[in-house]
Write a structure and sequence with these properties.
With about 220 residues, the protein is α/β, with parallel strands linked by helices. The protein has 6 helices and 8 strands. Helix 1 packs across helix 2 and helix 4 runs parallel beside helix 5. The radius of gyration is 17 Å and the shape is globular.
Length: about 220
Amino acid sequence: MIEAKKSRVFEWMFSLYNTWLLRTSFHRLYVRGHIVQTPALYVANHSSWWDGLIAFQLSRFLFQQNSYAMMSEEGLKQYPFFRKLGGFSINRTQRKEMMKSLDYAVSLLRDGKSVWMFPQGEEQHVEKRPLQFFTGAIYVAERANVPIVPLAFYHSLRHHRKPEWFIHIGEPLWTADIEGSHRKDKTAELERICTAQLDDVRRLVMTEQLQSFTPWNGGTL
């Protein structure tokens, strides 16, 4: 397992670049929901190369937290600089290595850090259903005794040359309050909650009911 190797200087430099990148690549970004500023396990659907960069900006500028993110071993080897931003690897083809990654996430959360996970495990089209979550997120939240914050990421081309990005931040969930007697059942319920959030954002975008969203420039609101 490849552990994170954070660098504050690199994070600061990258945040400047990433802010510029988001502002020049998207017509506009939108956020709605409760801005959480306490350590938590953040989970979101994974439908784009941009997901990790959006998560980084949210953590740094809106949530203002010391956050880490689980990413594929292949992806981290391809882009090793993500280690300096808090990226650590997971290899689902080897159970022993996979458990090391999950337990590493637990240790970060117990230490007061926040962790991002994408329970689909790999990029899937934003319209694909079911989302098909792995059980790792529930395992980590249970062991670390932290809330799960479910997010919906949705992107769309509408009336402009550039796409728009929509973010819904759900209410924090404790695993004890998620329906299900077993980890597999709770994972299915978490998937249902995240799917409902994502479908609701899709509906609002399609019907152009954006009153509940706040425009976001990729930095502070």
